UniProtKB/TrEMBL annotation, chains A, B:
Keywords: Amino-acid biosynthesis, ATP-binding, Diaminopimelate biosynthesis, Kinase, Lysine biosynthesis, Nucleotide-binding, Transferase. Catalyzes the phosphorylation of the beta-carboxyl group of aspartic acid with ATP to yield 4-phospho-L-aspartate, which is involved in the branched biosynthetic pathway leading to the biosynthesis of amino acids threonine, isoleucine and methionine. It catalyses: L-aspartate + ATP = 4-phospho-L-aspartate + ADP. It comes from Pelagirhabdus alkalitolerans. It is an enzyme of class 2 (transferase). PANTHER family: ASPARTATE KINASE (PTHR21499), ASPARTOKINASE 3 (PTHR21499:SF67). The keyword Transferase applies. Pathway: Amino-acid biosynthesis; L-threonine biosynthesis; L-threonine from L-aspartate: step 1/5; Amino-acid biosynthesis; L-methionine biosynthesis via de novo pathway; L-homoserine from L-aspartate: step 1/3; Amino-acid biosynthesis; L-lysine biosynthesis via DAP pathway; (S)-tetrahydrodipicolinate from L-aspartate: step 1/4. NCBIfam families: asp_kinases, PRK09034.1. The keyword Cell division does not apply. This is Aspartokinase.
């Protein structure tokens, strides 16, 4: 059994939904479908979820809501007209909205319920269309699917007991279409995940039904081994592990909402990234443990906007708790850090620049001077990190040398190296100006 | 003005003291001399300080102390006989010991005073000999030199006000000979530094008199760029910075008691390591800031006996305080750590194996599992660290590549790399079995 999740661009129009239907039809193991709300049809378009948020705001402000509601209805009207479906979904939307606007209740939960109308309506539309073209499909509300969430509107978390309920979906004979993005509290109130939460629903359902595969249909053929804005026409990654995906997503690869994958990761379910517009493309598959592949490096990621905070003190390494106290100061000031490479008497903390503006920097430096009495403390901004990623790096002697050589050959100085004992990644810190040259050179060394 | 400190092997016998006198005579800027107690004359010998500790133990146990006292006296008797000096020092020792054994007072302070007799007597002997051979020299007691210490027997700390007093030594016309290893509290009680504390006295006096140079006479010509037990007949280091010395001393280079140098380091006084037995050898000089030398690497050090504690957790880097909480557990369990290389979702802590036996390891792993709920936690023992050290590494593109290449060429896999933004050192973690091959290969790459 496969769980197929279709993102906003895959369900943005009637034309796209026809592709989705053909994809579902082409593989009978695709028995559970999770959908987003209709996304943008072109750059100038507005996502249905954003239209619903505007509707909610107008209502909250006591303004007239006719235009906002009509904008939502018109998106769905166009879809059902082109698919030649009944107008039941339009009636449902009007009824649901009317009820929310007129009945009592907490405004926060009204806004939550409004936001979820896009996914909910699309699931109804798609299931009706699937039946129309001859499939035995049905809409399944998240409550009936068993998706029970914590009472945290806008950032709800799955409750552990949900998975047993969701497992029962396996017993159904029909193809079920479940709206993503929301579920229900134990008290029956509708709550949503964080934005982009349809990925979370897909991952939860895949884990719950113990799917053989979680297919995530989007609008790219696959994940590239390097940022295509830096390297022209780079190679595609056919398969990578969860760990590799995480290391890559750190710096520039953003195919996934990483949190979304937690349930699938824990259940060790492989995730396939596929293109709705080109379903025959191989795509990229994310697995728990990969078979031996032979290549040490699977991808190269890079990101700018880092800074280092450097602290040195003669005999630092004899001072018990020095590093911990430094990290305490940062935590105290609300700054999260990325890495802490260290020498004997010095310690650098790598921080995203947006974590520490000039004013905050002064506060932190003053506290370090007062509380830790160092010999030197200073910061350096404008750093970039490059991640060279691959689970097999640890069994290839010389990978680090090859990578460092490639960066040196590009004339770029390495400011920092950080390789953990896991050896899934090798991180280089360089000045931002050198990123393009260094990444191109690394690509040539490992992929050409 | 130079401060010359002579270590235990340099003052172990009359023959050695003659060399010391010639060294002092050969440079009239050597105006302040600090001495250790007589050390071993050969491998089977016992240091005078150890004889004094035995004397103190016998006294404390209420045993007969005649043999122990005679052992001390006999060492000095042999020296003064061969140098043809008066026996005043023997009378002083007997008198001091008798006073300590018969007068009232705290046992801890009696033991302290006994321990200091070696340095004190040797300073008297040397000053008398210098006068005898025609120099204008005098013994100077630490109290008169102004060395005022905190009331911490066996690990006393210098009091800041001492330095002003010590500065007055500049005004003296004579060569002064100061015994190392001890000083006095404000109440006038004798207290000692930690063992090896003559280096501390030398460094304090050099800082106090604002010496142009602190000469540390020992029994090696210089510091080698790599452990001579690994590489046959390696190159000598002529000059290195304090920072480089510290990074090297981390892993196998132990010329210095690193704490000893703090006063000299703070006063930015260069330290020269010279050989009493070969004073014309260039030696090694340790400076605050070195002039540009052109070579990126000054030395390679290595040490075994490390282990790594590996912790991974999906989305670790979103969990504020994860690293800090891990370090808290270690601190709580009394474990100090060396480095913390990290990936996105994993963190390794490098620890000296002697910090964590199997039992303690189980406690730590249990706490990590309970308090941090990681996906994986395990340890790996039998690691070695190699430090490639040089202040100029940061202005040489390709040093890291060259080093990693050399290790790879030796067929050794790199488990871990840690390079801080200071770039004074580049640290590699490898399995212990590969150390010799890796260090030899690095030596060939950077020094041959």
């Amino acid at each position: 059994m496969k769980v197929a999740k279709f993102g906003g661009s895959s369900v943005a129009s009637a034309e796209q939904l026809k592709k989705v239907a053909r994809i579902i039809e082409s593989d009978e193991s695709r028995r559970v479908v999770v959908v987003s709300a209709p996304g943008k049809r072109d750059d100038a378009d507005t996502k249905v979820t954003d239209l619903l948020i505007e509707l909610g705001q107008a209502f909250q402000n006591g303004e007239d809501t006719t235009d906002e509601l009509n904008a939502v209805l018109s998106r769905f009207k166009q879809i059902i007209t082109e698919l030649d479906l009944t107008d039941r979904v339009l009636k449902d939307i009007k009824e649901d909205v009317h009820k929310l606007f007129t009945e009592g209740g907490d405004i926060d939960f009204k806004l939550e319920a409004l936001k979820a109308i896009g996914e909910d309506s699309l699931a109804k539309v798609l299931s009706e269309y699937l039946v129309k073209v001859g499939m035995d499909a049905t809409y399944l509300n998240p409550k009936d699917a068993g998706i029970m969430l914590s009472d945290e509107p806008g950032s709800a978390q799955i409750l552990d007991e949900s998975f047993d309920h969701i497992y029962n979906i396996r017993k159904r004979d029909q193809i079920v279409v479940i709206p993503g993005f929301f579920g229900y509290t134990k008290e029956g109130k509708l709550v949503t995940f964080s934005r982009g939460g349809s990925d979370i629903t897909g991952s939860i359902v895949a884990a719950g039904v113990e799917a053989e595969l979680y297919e995530n249909f989007t609008d790219v053929d696959s994940v590239y081994c390097v940022n295509p804005q830096i390297v022209h026409n780079p190679k595609e990654i056919t398969s990578l592990t969860y760990k590799e995906m995480r290391e890559l997503s750190y710096a520039g690869f953003s195919v996934f909402h990483a949190e979304a994958l937690i349930p699938a990761f824990k259940a060790e379910i492989p995730v396939s990234i596929k293109n709705t517009n080109n379903p025959n493309a191989l795509g990229t598959i994310i697995v728990s443990r990969k078979e031996v592949r032979g290549d040490p490096v699977v991808g190269i990621a890079s990101d700018k906007g880092f800074m280092s905070l450097y602290v040195s003190k003669y005999l630092m390494n004899r001072e018990v708790g020095f590093g911990r106290r430094l990290l305490n100061i940062l935590e105290d000031e609300g700054i999260s850090y990325e890495h802490t490479p260290s020498g004997i008497d010095d310690l650098s903390v790598i921080i995203r620049e947006n974590q520490m503006d000039e004013e905050k920097e002064q506060v932190v430096i003053n506290r370090i001077n007062q509380e830790l009495n160092p010999d030197t403390v200073y910061t350096e901004r404008g750093l970039a990190l490059i991640m060279v990623v691959g689970e097999e790096m640890h069994c290839h002697v010389g990978t680090a040398a090859k990578a460092a050589q490639a960066i040196g050959d590009a004339g770029v100085n390495i400011e920092m190296i950080n390789q953990g004992s896991s050896e899934v990644s090798l991180m280089f810190g360089i000045k931002e100006a050198g990123v393009k040259k260094a990444v191109q050179s690394l690509y040539n060394a490992f992929f050409e």
